[in-house]
Write a structure and sequence with these properties.
The complex is a heterodimer of chains A (about 55) and B (about 230). Chain A is mainly alpha-helical and about 55 residues long. Chain A has 3 helices and no strands. Classes of the chains: A mainly alpha (about 55), B mainly alpha (about 230).
């Protein structure tokens, strides 16, 4: 029996906001962002790491 | 420059979140969350611009002084925070849900504000002490309060059992009121943070931001799991 295809729907908000943040980061990197601008991404990355550690993503 | 980029990203995030809400929570929930959220965002941005908390680039599409497409970011970001908060606090009915929304919203909004300042999409004209290239210290707290306020308002009205279009009327009538409360919260936060900066300097404000943006997620990651008591 084939394993059921896992729907991406539950993760859609997380995927969408991750795509948004990556797009912003790429835009910043493309235009020589200052370290302060790049540092603003740290809290989101820390939250993402915390979610992965707790298995809540 | 590139003000079209943030508007495009706002529309994409809004569309993805609307689709998710429609599929997972139902049509009524999705329509209510995003229609009321957009109304709230427009009113909120209008008053924020009037009170010179924020100022938007003239190159953006605007309704009055509020950006029409960029305002889509607010209900979408609040929705993402709400969904993630529900996972972290074991359900939307948990008493910790609003607390997680309060913590998550600024973490998601901070890169937007920093990038917006770098690209002149919007700016913060206030003279408040600022960090990260010009974001006033009160802004992350304001994001948290606004996100939690909107979620609390939405959940409160959803819980009232009203006939027919009663909920819709409650939302429409309640939204300006909630906008007023939001404005009051933002202004009070600004005054409190400015006073704190005046008395204690930037060190304490940096510490406050460190706790809000870094210490809480780290604490959440390493908090010991509650082991249920053994049953005899």
């Amino acid at each position: 029996m084939e394993p059921p295809i896992k729907s991406p729907l539950p993760a859609l908000p997380l995927l969408a906001v991750t795509a948004l943040l990556i797009a912003l980061l790429l835009l910043d990197l493309a235009f020589d962002a200052t370290p302060e601008v790049l540092a603003s991404f740290v809290p989101a990355v820390v939250w993402a790491a915390a979610c992965v550690l707790r298995g809540r993503c | 420059v590139y003000s079209g980029a943030v508007q495009l990203l706002a529309v994409a995030l809004f569309a993805a979140c609307l689709y998710h809400a429609w599929q997972s929570e139902g049509r009524r929930f999705a329509q209510q969350w995003f229609a009321v959220g957009y109304l709230f965002a427009l009113l909120y941005q209008l008053v924020m611009v009037q009170f010179r908390v924020v100022s938007y680039s003239d190159r953006m599409l605007q309704f009055g002084s509020a950006p029409t497409l960029t305002s889509l970011l607010l209900p979408a970001l609040f929705y993402v925070s709400n969904v993630l908060a529900a996972r972290m606090s074991h359900g939307k009915e948990s008493k910790w849900n609003l607390w997680f929304v309060f913590l998550l919203t600024p973490a998601l909004a901070l890169p937007l504000d920093a990038t917006a300042l770098a690209f002149d999409w919007w700016s913060f004209p206030s003279q408040s002490p600022a960090f990260l290239n010009g974001i006033p210290y009160f802004v992350p707290l304001s994001w948290g309060f606004t996100g939690a306020l909107y979620c609390a308002f939405f959940n409160f009205v959803r819980r009232i059992r009203l006939r027919g279009s009663g909920q819709l009327f409650a939302f429409v009538l309640g939204t300006p009121l909630v906008t007023g409360v939001g404005l009051l919260l933002v202004l009070m936060t600004q005054v409190a943070v400015d006073l704190l900066g005046l008395v204690q300097g930037d060190l304490l404000l940096n510490l406050l931001m460190g706790v809000l943006l870094l210490a809480f997620p780290i604490g959440f990651a390493f908090r010991p799991l509650r082991v249920p008591a053994p049953t005899r």
